[in-house]
Input
Amino acid sequence: MEDLSQFPLELDGADRPMVSFRKVTKRYGSLTVLDNLDLDVAEGEMVSIIGPSGSGKTTVLRMLMLERIQGGVIYVDGQPLTHEVRDGALVPASERYLRRAREPIGMCFQHFNLFPHMTALQNCMEGPVQVLGLSRQEARARSEELLDMVGLIDKKDQHPSRLSGGQQQRVAIARALAMRPKVMLLDEVTSALDPEVIGEVTEVIRKLVREHRLTIMMVTHQMGFAADISDRVCFFYGGRIEEQGPPSELFGNPQKDRTRQFLSAVKSAD
Amino acid sequence: MSYWEFLAEHGGRFLDGTLITAGQFFLSAALAIAIALVAGLMKLSDNALIRTPAVVYIEIFRGTSLLVQLYWIFFVLPLFGITLEKFTAGFVAVGMNLGAYGAELVRGGIQSVPKGQWEAAYALSMSPARRMWRIILPQALVNMLPPWGNLLIELLKGTALVSLISVADLMFEAKQINGSTFLSAQAFGTALIIYYIFARLIVTPFMRWLETVMARKIGKA
Ligand SMILES: Nc1ncnc2c1ncn2[C@@H]1O[C@H](COP(=O)(O)OP(=O)(O)OP(=O)(O)O)[C@@H](O)[C@H]1O
Ligand SMILES: [Mg+2]
Output
């Protein structure tokens, strides 16, 4: 059994990170995908995660939103996410606690995952009405504002099947934002898109970074984009952070061989 | 006697029988849908205490004959103190039998909804019940409508068995008319035609219409 008493019950202090992974281990059966991961993300920080296929990038995001971990503790906004405090000690979180703790997190997926039986507007209103308990008017106002922000207010009554991939992904971003998250997780949100519509999605993400004080963790294969908008870039290799730093340093002057190899392989593929 | 004279004389009884058959059909369909939904959802549960009763139910009702089930419900249950009126026993048996098949359709329909839909609903912090009801079931419904169309036709055919416990349905009336007139071709021919019309001109077109409406709702048409 893991000794959970080594982990604090909560993180406090003004400079506490928005997201904190402490010695986090994730296994699928006998395969250890992430081993003893430590990673802090500050409030308002934009962190990009890059690395070869299978290095655990998606897994990092999924542990925050969708999956349980086998070791360590994750904190969000100072509170434990994967564990809850009972009788003054950390214990693995119940399903209900976990869902609650994940409320301040929003996620966008590679394949959008919009609800096909709802229009763009209904997709955005679903969470605010069903989960946050907003009135339909409030939810509608909020959703229309966000659809306007992503440039799709004229498509609000369309079903996803009538929208292009780029448009669907922008609706998905608006849907996640409608929950007013503090943390946004973006998993290769442009990878399933035709090259000519990638720009419309990256433009929305730029706007998010500029205009909202949102903490963002973004997995991406677009090195140029990551270099452009990130505060920090983490290079994953084999389930560990091999190297991290501001984009100028990681891309401009990588220290590790594997980082250099990966970056030159990506560059020659472009 | 021409067929028209035959119809003029026995048309009333065919009509009565058809109305009873229609009643059996709608009531057993409603019961089958309700059972299918509950048993289908139960079978998907992670909890063995919830899943096992559904598995046993589905196995028993799919693994044995509808006629035997009908006789059980009508003749054997009274020995255990549960006496059902024959009309009720009829649609309960048919509904329970086809509900077991329907449960498999519900289970399959739910499982055919992509995992990403569950994850997207979860990412909005929706409770398990809301995820199922608002996100998964509507999509599952669209996927399972075509097989449900077939199942309802099977159900209609199944209702003919209730004549064997003397429910005065279409089949029962046809047999009675045959017994008194010995005009077998006319009596059973008329029943055949009415069953066919019911299936192909009412049930099937209605299901097609429902499929179109649902497809439009989901933005596919
Ligand atoms: N549900 C699962 N069951 C078993 N193994 C899994 C599962 N999900 C991921 N893995 C494994 O975990 C490892 C990391 O996967 P992950 O999806 O995090 O990689 P990634 O860095 O996002 O890769 P990509 O760039 O291809 O998306 C891989 O070896 C993968 O095969
Ligand atoms: Mg991935």
